[in-house]
Amino acid sequence: xxxxQVEGMxxxxxxxxVMRAVQSLDPKAKVDIEFxxxxxxxxxxxxxEAICEVIAEYGYTVTPRV
Length: 66
Prior knowledge:
Elements: E1 2-7, H1 12-25, E2 30-34, E3 39-43, H2 48-56, E4 61-64
Antiparallel strand pairs: 1-3, 1-4, 2-3
Helix pairs in contact: 1-2
């Protein structure tokens, strides 16, 4: 499981956009989002770089969490 910090999510619509972004990369990805804290956990075989890139394309600032 990979965990990311996503800045700029402040509503359910934002959460849905991030979910769509990740699933556009991997439709089978399991995504758990806590929009109040900005935590996004993704279970996928895709690289963290690819996930960061696709979420950033939707206008969010994203960084991997350690």
